[in-house]
Amino acid sequence: MTTNPAERLVDLLDLEQIEVNIFRGRSPQESLQRVFGGQVAGQALVAAGRTTDGDRPVHSLHAYFLRPGRPGVPIVYQVERVRDGRSFTTRRVTAVQQGRTIFNLTASFHKGEQGSFEHQLPPRIDAPAPETLPTVTDEIRAHLGALPEQLERMARRQPFDIRYVDRLRWTQDEVQGAEPRSAVWMRAVGPLGDDPLVHTCALTYASDMTLLDAVRIPVEPLWGPRGFDMASLDHAMWFHRPFRADEWFLYDQESPIATGGRGLARGRIYDQQGQLLVSVVQEGLFRRYEPGGAS
After folding, report:
1. Any idea where the Acyl-CoA thioesterase-like N-terminal HotDog domain is (predicted)?
2. Residues 121-141: tens digit of each pLDDT
């Protein structure tokens, strides 16, 4: 097996077709308690895309995380061909692991049309160039002196280079009064090939990595011991323009509200020229850890 994290991501997204509308995806054995949600969303989108004729890129997806997936156990993706219209193709995907549905996704594909008009709000922030910012691992090493062994292993397997526009906060005092906003530069750590579906699914994978940071920022530092058990509940994306996930993109994130144990986050993904590529919305569940009790 390859040791290059970008190649591993491409391999992870390369599903095995076991029937006309049924695919099987690997779920690596990780130290995490549950399968990473971005992996399941990315694989489900691959399954949906494999049942289309390939000339209509995905323009939106809506998904629900129903149960936590188990690392190391394969996931089966069952695709329902809901509609093949003149302009749009619709697919519904159910992810099943050990006989239980863990995830549902509906994706819509649309062949690009020449619109009569275009507009776009300018980016909210003027972020410094990504090359001028330290990587997450560099920030952690600078603060701790060295990466803990578990984080070192995770860093070596990380398929995306992530660089926070604002410095990481490390103490409760530093998060006091912080706005529920976060922004990161991201790109795959190596080439992902030229298949547009792979880039779309890779960015779908990445979109789940930092979005809920915006919910947590006013409450606790992003790194270090967590006070909350956090899980994605649902995820929606709209793809506006073509892109490559192995080129830098700016992920601007904000949380308009957190209440009732749930936090809502919105994200806008831009290229380096400030063009809006993708819009994202996600809601997450937040439960405070109880000492000696179940989370």
Report:
1. 33-110
2. 999 999 999 999 999 888 888
Q: Which pairing describes strands 75-84 and 100-110: parallel, antiparallel, or unpaired? A: unpaired
Cα dist from 136 to 147, 159, 224, 252, 276, whole Å: 11, 13, 13, 16, 24
- CA dihedral 255→257→262→265, nearest 10 degrees, is -20
C-alpha pair distances (Å), 122 with each of 7, 100, 276: 34, 44, 8
> Nearest Cα to 230, choosing from 203, 202, 254, 209?
209
Q: What span, in angstroms and rounded, lies between the C-alpha atoms of 249 and 187?
A: 6
Q: Dihedral angle at the C-alpha atoms of 125, 131, 135, 138, nearest 10 degrees? A: -130
Dihedral (CA of 66, 72, 73, 74) sign = positive
Which bin fits 224, alpha (ψ -120 to 50), beta or left (φ > 0)?
A: left
The side-by-side arrangement of strands in the sheet containing 16-19 is: 16-19, 22-25, 75-84, 88-97, 100-110, 58-65, 228-239, 276-288, 262-270, 249-259, 181-188, 160-164
* pLDDT value for 288: 83
Could you tell me which residue, 224 or 23, shows the higher pLDDT? 23
Q: What digits encode the pLDDT tens for the residues 141-169?
A: 888 877 677 667 777 788 999 999 988 88
Active site residues per annotation: 208, 232, 282
